[in-house]
């Protein structure tokens, strides 16, 4: 039995919640996952997991063993990084996650420059609007939008991004423009299933913020699709400022209800809090932070 492989399989099962979920994530047969966990139990002569439930349940001994496995595998990764020279010079694979629009238009160009400057680093970038788990998905650094909850991640702010309500001139000529947020219930809105509830939009009323119910005829799962639909006259869309800047500049879209928009939300580079950050990560942060701030109009942040 390969005990390290069995440990990794057990940890994946714990992190994903079940043996079958671990099988799907690792792309190995469920029978193999179950057999490896059983082999660990036979080797240790203890019960680690309780069978017969849909969600994986650890015994008390299993919880202690899983905690030890995490430390062992983390120490192994550190040893491999040290042996490979990641702490002596920037090298190795850098895994980055970013929202689709910011990633495509801002992070990728900066990453290309970075790779040209550091030839011993290679990178993999994941463009997705979902919030990834840095540790579970082995992501070195991510761009994250919105206020960050207290956690074991470190954040460096790179932008303040506003939310823009907009529609095409043709739509406004046909339907008129809303005078205040509650008028949106009488309009055709394009809602985006992204960071907030699709049909409840936040607006600022004086010193308070309120969620306003909107009427939606079209729901999309991509901000780019929302912009395209709005330009085509499908209705009123609400997207992030950088996603619609060109359409506003060209006159393809008109901004609405600016006085009611909430304060801009932060965009940050986030990465795990770790005792010894690899040089590849430190090099990327030093390289990318000022460039992303410049591209996103946040060159002189307070306290910088």
UniProtKB/TrEMBL annotation:
Molecular-function GO terms, alphabetical: DNA-binding transcription factor activity; sequence-specific DNA binding
Keyword Transcription regulation: yes
Entry keyword set: DNA-binding, Transcription, Transcription regulation
SUPFAM superfamilies found in the cross-reference section: Periplasmic binding protein-like II, Winged helix' DNA-binding domain
UniProt-listed GO biological process terms: DNA-templated transcription
InterPro entries per the UniProt record, alphabetical: LysR-type_TF_proteobact-type, LysR_HTH_N, LysR_subst-bd, WH-like_DNA-bd_sf, WH_DNA-bd_sf
One Pfam entry name: LysR_substrate
Domain HTH lysR-type: 1-59
PANTHER family in the cross-refs: HTH-TYPE TRANSCRIPTIONAL ACTIVATOR TTDR-RELATED, HTH-TYPE TRANSCRIPTIONAL REGULATOR
Assigned protein family: Belongs to the LysR transcriptional regulatory family.
Protein name: LysR family transcriptional regulator
Organism: Dyella choica
Lineage of the organism: Bacteria, Pseudomonadati, Pseudomonadota, Gammaproteobacteria, Lysobacterales
